[in-house]
């Protein structure tokens, strides 16, 4: 957003009340920011407490958290069986058929609701 698009002076004073109410923000942000800072700090501490002692964790120059890849947990046999069952139940169709089917359903909905179809 460029500076030219930000309200200031009398225009801001006239719009401030409705804007703050619509966004559910207080006029003085001090307590809101302090509350958010406490929540963020708590979340960071909770994440830090859950990190395994053996995990390689670093924080990059831009504050991004980097964690080494974790070892995958093998899929349980029940999940493998479920995948096979679902795969066998699904019809083999290509993407064009799926798109055409979705488009035809959309047309039916618009006809039933008596709404004009959006132009393409």
Model description:
With 120 residues, the chain is mainly α. It has one domain (7-51, 71-112). Helix content is 55%, strand content 5%. It contains four helices and two strands, in the order ααββαα. It has a two-stranded antiparallel sheet with strand order 1-2. Strand 1 and strand 2 form a beta hairpin. The protein is flat, with a radius of gyration of 27 Å. The mean pLDDT is 80.
The gist of it:
The chain has 120 residues and is mainly alpha-helical. Helix content is 55%, strand content 5%. The protein has one domain (7-51, 71-112).
Low-confidence stretches: none
**What characteristic shape results from the CA principal axes?**
flat
Compute the separation of the termini in Å. Answer: 31 Å
Which structural class fits the helix and strand makeup? mainly alpha
What is the helix content?
55-70%
How many structural domains in the coordinates? 1
Q: Given the structure, what is the number of helices?
A: 4
Strand content: 5-15%
What's the layout of helices and strands?
Layout: H1 9-22, H2 30-50, E1 57-59, E2 65-67, H3 77-89, H4 95-112
Antiparallel strand pairs: 1-2
